């Protein structure tokens, strides 16, 4: 039977009326229970109508407040006000204790006039149930506690759930007092008979609160410039009946011995595991480079270092001592690492006068050097220099005022054939006032003998670059007894077996060799080495082989500025004799045992 639309509507209306009648006639109230959840408390019964929001009753308990209501006695699941509510449901109160008191401590040091910090206050709150807790959301009223020294108190306030507790924190405010001074002498060396200028002394006072200030009303202890030498002078300062002192060092020099100007000599590490030479010298505004080993890829390592000092891209002087790879490869560079002749404008090149070299690296060196000459560089041999020929000079004034000079010293193998390429080495003497610094490349015994014989006025030196990387063939007594070095700097990877053959592996001959050390020891123990090679024994080859390299002293910088000598190293300033490598691999000479 097909119903009309009017009949369908009438049926729907009738059903709706019946449903409403049934709904009105039903009891839609729900009974729930709220349990205060502590001993002796009774449940609270609440009747809820259809659609009513679940509203917990107000309950109280001495010393506590209700944190919330939960679905179980253990109070793990909170009640959702808008969730389904079933008749007979029971809800449980969770109580938190109220704070009843607090204690506070101040952990910092306070000085008169200082500013106390809340961060230094530790507050512990005591609760009604006997528990405690450290809190951070407290307030402190410090007032003017640091107006004067003494024991002071500040008020601490903490509020939790409408309950406020107060307490006090004790602060010990100390008076500010003089603690120490640091005195520095900023003047130059004083010539015999000269005066110590108090304006060249800077004194900074430090106080117990950490503050500092420069003071001028200090006292200077006894000082005499009658005799040359370094003196320790006491500086004292008094404030509020507190006296503290420090010392300064002042050097007195003979008038003719004053080494003026600025000079620094840098013995470089070369960025790889191969021994080689590269020495950079800064004299005033003049830049000098002696050799550029050890391999082609050393070029970038050397230039990265030099660029910190040579800011105009010009090397006024380049000295190339001899034709071995470990002294010239960096000038050449490679397709991946541009050589030093290409990186810098080199104004004057001074090189070895003779060579037996036929190697590819030597041919590459000649090509790069010729290209530099084509671009305007002057190039002279050491022999031309000592003879003052073709524009070359035996002595070059490096600073323009004569304070620092570079002299090319004659030795016979500039002209005669040598039995070893090393003896062709160019020998350089740097002079600064009465201070002298000698660099002899890889010169060995025959060359050293000739150097001494042909330079009877060869002076004693402050610094000697250890010949031939500290080899047993160099630093022979004929030379050492003449120059009597105060410092020796060696460019090498100490302990390297790079130059040893399987049949002649005498580890005492590795750089610096035992013989070299024994000969140098009577003159000085100030011996420094750039790098250290770790070696291991290769069973398959039945010989020692190089393992890995690291810095020993690192880049060694020897400076003399206005007569004041300093030596600083990039890794450490440990003397060779005090290194672990020396103690394990060399025998200490008697001269170094004293």
TrEMBL record:
UniProt signal peptide: 1-24
Record PROSITE patterns: PROKAR_LIPOPROTEIN
Pfam families the UniProt entry points to: Big_3, Lactamase_B
Keyword list, A-Z: Signal
Metallo-beta-lactamase domain ranges (all copies): 275-495
Protein name, per record: MBL fold metallo-hydrolase
Species of the source: Candidatus Fimimonas gallinarum
């Amino acid at each position: 039977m097909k119903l009309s639309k009017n009949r369908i509507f009438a049926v729907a209306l009738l059903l709706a009326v019946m449903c409403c009648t049934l709904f009105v006639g039903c009891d839609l109230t729900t009974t729930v229970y709220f349990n205060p959840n502590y001993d002796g408390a009774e449940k609270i019964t609440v009747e809820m109508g259809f659609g009513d929001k679940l509203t917990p009753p107000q309950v109280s308990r001495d010393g506590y407040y209700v944190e919330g209501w939960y679905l179980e006695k253990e109070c793990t699941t909170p009640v959702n006000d808008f969730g389904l509510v079933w008749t007979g449901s029971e809800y449980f109160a969770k109580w938190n204790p109220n704070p009843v008191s607090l204690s506070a401590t101040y952990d910092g040091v306070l000085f008169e006039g200082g500013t106390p910090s809340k961060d230094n206050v530790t507050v512990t709150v005591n609760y009604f149930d006997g528990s405690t807790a450290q809190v951070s959301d407290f307030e402190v009223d410090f007032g003017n506690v640091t107006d004067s020294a003494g024991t002071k108190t500040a008020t601490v306030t903490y509020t939790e759930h409408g309950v406020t507790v107060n307490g006090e924190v004790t602060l010990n405010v100390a008076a500010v007092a003089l603690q120490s001074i640091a005195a520095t002498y900023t003047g130059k060396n004083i010539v015999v008979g000269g005066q110590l200028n108090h304006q060249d002394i800077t004194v900074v006072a430090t106080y117990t609160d950490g503050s500092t200030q420069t003071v001028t009303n200090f006292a200077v202890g006894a000082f005499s410039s009658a005799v040359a030498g370094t003196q320790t002078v006491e500086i004292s300062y008094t404030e509020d009946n507190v006296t503290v002192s420090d010392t300064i060092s002042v050097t007195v020099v003979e008038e003719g011995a004053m080494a003026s100007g600025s000079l620094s000599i840098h013995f470089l590490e070369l960025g790889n595991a191969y021994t080689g030479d590269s020495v950079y010298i800064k004299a005033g505004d003049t830049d000098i480079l002696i050799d550029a080993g050890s391999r082609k890829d050393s070029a970038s390592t050397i230039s990265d270092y030099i660029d910190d000092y040579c800011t105009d891209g010009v090397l006024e002087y380049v000295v190339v001592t001899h034709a071995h790879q470990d002294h010239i490869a960096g000038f050449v560079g490679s397709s991946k690492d541009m050589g030093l002749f290409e990186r810098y404008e080199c104004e004057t090149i001074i090189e070895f006068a003779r060579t037996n070299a036929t190697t590819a690296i030597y041919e590459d060196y000649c090509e790069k050097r010729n290209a530099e000459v084509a671009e305007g560089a002057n190039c002279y041999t050491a022999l031309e220099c000592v003879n003052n020929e073709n524009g070359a000079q035996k002595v070059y004034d490096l600073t323009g005022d004569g304070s620092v000079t570079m002299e090319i010293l004659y030795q016979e193998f500039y002209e005669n054939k040598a039995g070893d390429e090393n003896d062709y080495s160019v020998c350089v003497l740097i002079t600064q006032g009465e201070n002298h610094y000698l660099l002899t490349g890889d010169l060995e015994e025959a060359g050293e003998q000739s150097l001494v014989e042909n330079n009877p006025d060869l002076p004693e030196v402050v610094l000697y670059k250890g010949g031939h990387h500290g080899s047993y063939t160099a630093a022979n007594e004929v030379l050492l007894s003449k120059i009597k070095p105060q410092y020796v700097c060696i460019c090498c990877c100490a302990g390297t077996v790079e130059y040893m053959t399987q049949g002649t592996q005498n580890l005492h001959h590795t750089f610096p060799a035992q013989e070299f050390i024994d000969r140098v020891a009577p003159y000085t123990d100030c011996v420094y080495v750039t790098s250290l090679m770790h070696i291991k024994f290769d069973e398959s080859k039945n010989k020692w082989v190089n393992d890995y390299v690291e810095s020993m002293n690192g880049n060694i910088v020897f400076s003399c500025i206005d007569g004041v000598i300093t030596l600083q190293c990039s890794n450490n300033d440990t003397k060779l004799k005090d290194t672990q490598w020396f103690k394990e691999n060399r025998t200490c000479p008697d001269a170094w045992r004293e």
